[in-house]
Design brief:
alpha+beta, 1 helix, 3 strands, Zinc ribbon domain-containing protein, DUF7560
């Protein structure tokens, strides 16, 4: 199973996200501080 983590470039909060959450973060920004997010802020971890 593949897990995707988002790490905010501003507040450095790291959260596990699904595909829908990933799209929302790319559109709206970090859910904690609203900083702009790009593809580079997502990391895939294989479990």
């Amino acid at each position: 199973m593949t897990t995707v983590h988002f790490t905010c470039p501003d507040c450095e909060q790291t959260i596990e996200v699904n595909d829908a959450m990933r799209e929302t973060i790319l559109d709206a920004g970090c859910p904690v501080c609203t900083a702009t997010a790009t593809e580079e802020h997502f990391a895939v971890a294989c479990e």
